Amino acid sequence: MNITLSDVSLFLRLILDIIVVWAVLYYALKIVRNNTRTIQIAKGILFIVIAQGISSILGLSAVSFLINTFVSWGVIILVIIFQPEIRETLEKFGKTSSFLGLNVSRDNQINMIEELVRACTAMSQSKTGALISIQRTSSLEDFVHTGIEMDSVVTSELLGTIFQYGTPMHDGAVIIIGNKIACAAAYYPPTTKDLPSKYGARHRAAVGISEITDSITIIVSEETGNISVAMNGQLTQYKPEGLKRLLMNLLVPDATEPSSSNSIFQPVIKTAKNLGLTRNKRNADSQRRNTDERIHPLEVVDLSNQGVNAHVKPKS
Fold this sequence. Notes:
Layout: H1 5-33, H2 36-58, H3 61-72, H4 74-81, H5 83-93, H6 96-100, H7 106-126, E1 130-134, H8 141-144, E2 148-153, H9 156-162, E3 173-177, E4 180-186, H10 201-212, E5 216-220, E6 227-231, E7 234-238, H11 240-251, H12 266-290
Helix pairs in contact: 2-3, 7-9, 7-11
C-alpha cells in the first residue's frame, strides 16, 4: 500500500476539521451548562426542532410554515438572546488564562480557602453580613466593573474590614478571581424566584448570580449569622467545616490530575480514564467468575488492638 503526501495531507485536514468542530460544540455546550437560564432557552429550541420534525412527518402545512418562518430568523434571534454569552466567549479568546486556567498554585488556592473560611467563621460569630463570589469557568469581569476594583491577596482581616458595617464597601459583593480579590461592592441582579421572606437582598443577589454563572457565592446572614452557599440557583446552608470541605472539593485540583481543569482536552482524558477503569473492572469480574465460589477466605481479626481485658465485662 503506497501512501502519498496528498493522503497524509488529507488525513491531517480531516483530523483538524474534527478537532475544530468538537471544540466549537464543546464550548457551546459549556455555555449552556453554566447558565440555568440558557438551559431553559436551549430546551425551547429543542422543542421547536422536534415540533418541526413532527409537523413535517404528519403533513401539518400551517404549523410547518410557522416553524419554518421562525427558524429562518432563528440565527438572528439566537444572536440577540445569547449576546452576553457570545461576547464573553469572544473576550476569552483574547485572554490565555481563560482557556488554560488561572496560574494559581495548589498551595495558594488552599491558603485562599483557609483565609476565606476563617473570615466567614468570624463574621458568622459577629453576625456581620457578607457576600463573596468565587469565579470558576464563567467570567465575572462584567460584574467586577460595577464595583470598586482591587488586586489584593485574600486575607481574613481584609475581608472582615471590607464587610464591617459602615465602611464604604460593605454593601455589595466581593469577587475573588484566582487567589486575589478582584473587586468589592459589586452589584448583582437579584433573582426572580420567590424566596422565603427570611432571605434578604444578599441572598437574592447570590441566587441571581448563580443562575447566570457557575460561580460559588457565599453569604453570611447579618440576622442569624448562618453561612449559605448559592450554586446553580440553589441555596444550601453550611457550617464552617462543611464550607471548607466544599471549597476544597470544588476548587483544589487533585494532585494526580493535570493542573488545567478547563482544558478542552480534559473531557477526552476523563473518558479514556473511565474506559480504562471499565476494562479493569471487567477483567476483575471475569477472574472472579473463574474462581471457585465455594471457597471463601477466613476473616482474620487482629485482637492485639482490642485490649487484653476486652472480654471482661466492666463491674457495675
